[in-house]
Each structure stands twice: as structure tokens, then as C-alpha cells.
Amino acid sequence: xxxxxxxxxxxxxxxxxxxxxxxxxxxxxxxxxxxxxxxxxxxxxxxxxxxxxxxxxxxxxxxxxxxxxxxxxxxxxxxxxxxxxxxxxxxxxxxxxxxxxxxxxxxxxxxxxxxxxxxxxxxxxxxxxxxxxxxxxxxxxxxxxxxxxxxxxxxxxxxxxxxxxxxxxxxxxxxxxxxxxxxxxxxxxxxxxxxxxxxxxxxxxxxxxxxxxxxxxxxxxxxxxxxxxxxxxxxxxxxxxxxxxxxxxxxxxxxxxxxxxxxxxxxxxxxxxxxxxxxxxxxxxxxxxxxxxxxxxxxxxxxxxxxxxxxxxxxxxxxxxxxxxxxxxxxxxxxxxxxxxxxxxxxxxxxxxxxxxxxxx
Length: 361
Hints:
This protein is α+β, with helices and mostly antiparallel strands. It has helices spanning 53-65, 190-204, 221-224, 229-236, 324-333, 338-350, and strands at residues 5-8, 17-18, 23-25, 31-40, 80-89, 98-105, 116-123, 129-136, 138-139, 142-145, 150-153, 158-167, 180-185, 209-213, 216-220, 240-241, 248-252, 257-260, 265-266, 269-282, 285-287, 298-300, 303-318, 322-323, 354-355, 357-360. A six-stranded antiparallel barrel has the order 4-5-6-12-8-7.
């Protein structure tokens, strides 16, 4: 049985957080890149070209660009694999900089261990090439097998290349030319946005920030009287704000984990829970005729049906204002299984007595 874990935030542990961890600065963002390439140097664990014809096509194209004519030739190497290469171009990345890439097999390759990615251009959503990747792959798994058995640990068909791509094109974004900048809250909340507005205005001694909605605070760069927008953001992102957290309960049904916040409350409610088990067993009996008698063997069905009701929670009343941590502690003391406890919380939420956001994963 999976053990139940309940985490409750304590008021003594709450503390202000820097604004940089609560917001995203408008325009200061990364960009996703993707490319299609070829991995070589595998120890017989590459694509089966009969099942992955696109691998043979890209290999032919690469060899022809290198001056090797393979038109009409039949080759079936086992040490190459077609892969998708993904990366994230960080904000303000400059030409010549290096970024990490992730390499994943798209064919039936058994492993990318020891492989080398051949030069692969990486495109953004606009179709332009922003980086070029190449290097030795570091895979996080292992695979071994023989004629009758095979064992795989981890995911050997996916790996990374640290600093494996070089930036070739910069994204046009001039931060220094901005007069206004918006701060986008990662978790929109009117109270938190208002606190950010007050903290920023108090730091500069004038109204340079205004809350537009629960998820946006607009900043007047000119009103900060700083040397540049970068100086203003460097000062703002280190200001401390105490965010307003939503009352939330997160339940993971697979592991039986329950995580809750300190503000979760339960209204007055009565709870009753029990388990009903139905068991059906088939035990047919073969009946044979007596010796030297005429007749046939007959199979007589025999069925045993039982209904068993396991002891559960009787009708229990939860007083108004009780915290969910107290309810979970009481259920733990009664020895309630994690799965049953999750079902009880779902029922309490459905009854409208659980005053919190209920998230089931």
C-alpha cells in the first residue's frame, strides 16, 4: 500500500519572495528551436532502414553534400539513426554563444549511446535557422540483450549534448528602446498584483507602476529615471513581495499523495465511508458413471458467491472551520487507506464543503 504524504504550509515558514520569481518581463523570453538530423557511430543499435526509410534518405543527402555519389546504391548500415533535435534559445542570446540540445530518436533505433550528431540546423517557428547543433550524445540509459531476452534501463533512445549548439542568428529585441514594460504574473492574482504595484512605487518614490488586471502590472520606464530599462529591471526584480497563495489541494491518484495549503477550510459536514467486496468463485465438478455402467462424464457447475463488507468510517460529523490538515490527521489515525482518503476528499468537494481549488493528477 502506498503511504500517504500530506504537506501543509506553515505560517511561520511564509516569507517575502523576490519579484523576479513571481513575474515574467514582457519580451524577455526564450524561443523554441527544432531540427531533423542524423546520429552516426552507434554500435549496431541504429535504425532498421527497412522500417525507417527516412533515415536512408537523409543519409544519402548528407553523403551527396560531402561529394559522395550514392545514387542507386544499396547500403544497410546499422550504426545510424534519424533524430529530432530540440533546444531553447534563451533571451538576449548572441551570435557565437552555445546552448544545450536534446536529441531523441524517431525511428526504431535501440540506443543512442556513444553516437555523434552530425551538423544539424535548428529552426524557429518562423522557419529561420537560429542555431546549428553537433556533438557527442550523452544518453541517460542502457540497453543489453541477446537472442531470447533483452533488458532496458532508463531511456537510451534520448540524450543531451551540453553546449551542443552554436547560436548563428540573434532575435531582434531592443530592450533599451522601450518606454513602457509589462510584468506578467505567473499566477494571476489581484492581491499579489496590487502588492507588486505598491512595492515598486514605494521603491522609486513615485507612481511608475500601475496594475492593469490580475495578471499584468505596467511599468513606466521613463518615470523610473534610471540610466536604462535594464537598470530599472535589475532594481525591480530584487524587490521583496509576499504573494497571496490560493487555497489549493493537489491529489496524485497514482502515488496516493495529498498536498494542501494552509488556508484550506472545510464547512460543517457528515462523512460515512465503507468498502463492499463481492467475490464469485467457479468450482465445477466432474461426475463420472459407475464402473461397467453405460453413460458419459458430465461436468456439474458449482458457484460460490460471497458479499463481504469491510469496516469503514461510520457517520462522523466534521465541525465548521476545521482545517483539512486536521481532517487528514484524523483519517490517518483511523487507518484509512490513501485511495479511500482521496475518494472522501472528492466527495467533500462535490458536496461543496471543501473551500479550495481541487486538483487531481
